[in-house]
Amino acid sequence: MIRAETKPDDVHGMLASKGIVTSRGGRTSHAALVARQFGKPAVVGVMALDVDPEKREATIKRSSVVLREGDWVSIDGTTGEVFLGQVETMQPSLQEPALIELLGWADRVRRLGVWANADYPRDAERARSLGAEGIGLCRTEHMFFETERLPLVQTLILSRSEEERTEVLRKLLPLQRGDFEGLFRAMEGLPVTIRLIDPPLHEFLPAHDPLLKEVTELQTRLELRTGDIPAETRALESKRTMLDAVERLREMNPMLGLRGVRLGIHMPGLVRMQVRAIFEAACNCAEAGIEVYPKIMIPLVTHVDELRREQKSLEEEAKKVMGERNRKIRYKFGTMIEIPRAAITADEIASLAQFFSFGTNDLTQTTFGISRDDAETSFLAEYLTQGILPENPFDHLDEPGVGKLMEIAVKLGRKARPGLDIGICGEHGGDPKSIAFCHRLGLDYVSCSPFRVPVARLAAAHAALRGRPTA
Amino acid sequence: MIRAETKPDDVHGMLASKGIVTSRGGRTSHAALVARQFGKPAVVGVMALDVDPEKREATIKRSSVVLREGDWVSIDGTTGEVFLGQVETMQPSLQEPALIELLGWADRVRRLGVWANADYPRDAERARSLGAEGIGLCRTEHMFFETERLPLVQTLILSRSEEERTEVLRKLLPLQRGDFEGLFRAMEGLPVTIRLIDPPLHEFLPAHDPLLKEVTELQTRLELRTGDIPAETRALESKRTMLDAVERLREMNPMLGLRGVRLGIHMPGLVRMQVRAIFEAACNCAEAGIEVYPKIMIPLVTHVDELRREQKSLEEEAKKVMGERNRKIRYKFGTMIEIPRAAITADEIASLAQFFSFGTNDLTQTTFGISRDDAETSFLAEYLTQGILPENPFDHLDEPGVGKLMEIAVKLGRKARPGLDIGICGEHGGDPKSIAFCHRLGLDYVSCSPFRVPVARLAAAHAALRGRPTA
């Protein structure tokens, strides 16, 4: 799959592809993150490529080479190389006896748990087969992008009628319940950390600029009175309604906007439905004799009072479901630590949260004041080339800055709640250097994409060995 | 002046107005910030108002009241009330002998210095007359929005020719030099803190959406082949060039993008010109027998290596000017502390920076992960209404979060550089509650808009008195 860049609604195309190439974006672009999650090789930010999705072709700039749909291209996601034609490849096997033995040794010495980020049962199964001991991050919003669900979510966002919203939530509930049942079955009693909806709402709506173009074009045509006027008038009206909604939800800095727990507080019905789905799924599994252990994770908390509001109301819903079903489920409510203020006030936050998970992608963005969407193709790239930053803080945890905040959070959190579970679920959870730091910090586990689990097991063992006194 | 919201190019209209009303935006919107700076009363976020700038009128929603250009409206910026017609008012005098005596008592007990944020000589003069002991923040970008300068700045941004850029900088130099000379003359040897260019480049270019609309409309007209085709083709071409440039510079999250020191490193000629202008102006004043004390402030530093690159190259330029003019000027290079990472690594930063100034607007945004552009009219307003946050952190410094980071920065900074000058130049510098906190933190000064200087003098005295042992 070759694209200028990918968006959440390309996920199905990405799933169907063998590998992904984009002409824009960096290591933490949507394409790179999702490819890693799906275990697809990807080369992103190939700036020499001019991609024309309309013509279904891509041109290599300053050359006569044109790639057309169906042409063979081979890619190496590790080195970032793209080859014309079909290069001979081989499938690495993770079932080699020697590798299994080595990983067994690693498991005996490591102290860090190794969990996986998985949104679908198939990812969870793969993660377990590679040795994951739990799910550290299930991103529930991915489930909302599926073809039959997106229109429901859009209705939920756009509707001004309480009845209509209730109706949509009633339709979404069994779908979400099915998602979670699949995850619980795949994990059989291992912890499954489910993050409640996180992204800004506009991500579920059509993109703004093409819509503005369409509306302007229709308007101009109507003013010039050409073509089928009644049909164009109707089209204009419906497009304009959508444009108004998109503009109402548009934010100057969406990364710092109406997301995470803020969204949960703003649209309480949606997250309450999610919690109901989690506990109904858990009760269904328990009734079928399958052990379950959901950990419900509230994202983007900044102030303990957000958690006070949100966790209380959600725990009530959980208890309601367990009461209806007359079942007791083992569970925890916790939060992500991904905003500097949450790290600094971690003692207050741990008075309510039963676990912490560091979201180091966002924590790096806010601690540095850098938007990775913009920076990796502009000044951050310049900084790395010029040696102003020693390394990309999105690749390796920045120990003096972000790491210091994590240290403060671990100390304050465990002071307020001794034995507090603490993990990490950002991209850094799969980076050996960052894993070594997490070991030294005394975290309980790292969570990474399923394909990185074996690497993380080895890295965790290395970290533990390095800490041992030498003879 | 009544507007839906204001933008930097409305500044001249705002200067000419007696008071400002907007239908959108909150306490830290552009309208509110600039009005405070200019000492104009303002009421922002009057959502009941429908403003139609084309018709030059504003309608009060769900009523028949229409305000037309020239109609009388009276406003109370403290209570946020808007009155139809001309209400009787009186001008408060800051020259009352009783007030002068009271402020004199305050000055004798306060320990905090009181400086002012001032971009123009007239603001600096006003600030001094109200008792300011220095300028804590001169925002140099405001100077670039002036009518004759904006086209130059746009050429600078858009040009791909080194010669053209050099030519623009040559034209901007005497204008900037004049700006700084005026400030130095007004302050007569008191410290003048000049912040090098800070905002993202797109703020100097036309807004994206209207441009996209214009291009689409022209394109549609041309496709339908109506009107004056050669003229429309030319118009389309020039608009499209500008649109391409705007899109190239557009960022997903401009608040976390190519700004501050990042911009200085990206376009080194521009900030070097600013430093040259500062030192040429300083030498001119010194030659005229006027004492000067410039403090050059590098904004948005995240990592000490940014400062290492930037400060070194700028200090070389400063020394070059002093060499050319054979003058020694007293000066300091320092930085803003407005990003969490800068606060946490303040010891490294203080190894180079000779002063710190807390930019608590941005520090609050990054510490909370909140964009004030978006939040104050959406979830932050909800949070305050529902009591989820005890108060607006943009009004009063958030002591447990942002304040904690400031405390860390003060401690680390002074450990690395004993006696380090530390001030604050965010909006909080004019808020009595925040001033009391700054006193307890041991800052050297607060800097606020000129009209808040008397209030800050009193608040600083209150803070000092509260700290005294009672008899």
Short overview:
The structure is a homodimer of 471-residue chains. By secondary structure, chain A is α/β, with parallel strands linked by helices.
Write the layout of secondary structure elements.
The structure is a homodimer of 471-residue chains.
Chain A: E1 2-3, H1 11-16, E2 20-22, H2 30-38, E3 42-43, E4 49-52, E5 57-60, E6 66-68, E7 73-76, E8 81-84, H3 97-109, E9 113-117, H4 121-129, E10 135-139, H5 141-144, H6 150-158, H7 162-187, E11 191-195, H8 208-223, H9 229-249, H10 260-266, H11 268-287, E12 293-298, H12 304-325, E13 332-337, H13 340-344, H14 346-350, E14 355-358, H15 360-368, H16 372-375, H17 379-385, H18 399-416, E15 421-424, H19 432-441, E16 445-448, H20 453-467
Parallel strand pairs in A: 1-2, 2-3, 9-10, 9-16, 10-11, 11-12, 12-13, 13-14, 14-15, 15-16
Antiparallel strand pairs in A: 4-5, 5-6, 7-8
Helix pairs in contact in A: 3-20, 4-7, 6-7, 7-11, 8-9, 10-11, 10-12, 11-12, 19-20
Describe this structure in words.
Two copies of one chain form a homodimer. In chain A, 50% of the residues lie in helices and 14% in strands. In chain A, helix 3 crosses helix 20, helix 6 (150-158) runs antiparallel to helix 7 and helix 19 (432-441) crosses helix 20. The first copy, chain A, starts with a strand and ends with a helix. In chain A, strands 9-10-11-12-13-14-15-16 form an eight-stranded parallel β-barrel, surrounded by seven helices. A three-stranded parallel beta sheet of chain A has the order 1-2-3, with helices on one face. With 471 residues, chain A is of the alpha/beta class. The mean pLDDT of chain A is 93. In chain A, strand 4 (49-52) and strand 5 (57-60) form a beta hairpin. The first copy, chain A, has 20 helices and 16 strands. Chains A and B meet through helix 8, helix 10, helix 12, helix 13 and helix 15 of A and helix 8, helix 10, helix 12, helix 13 and helix 15 of B.
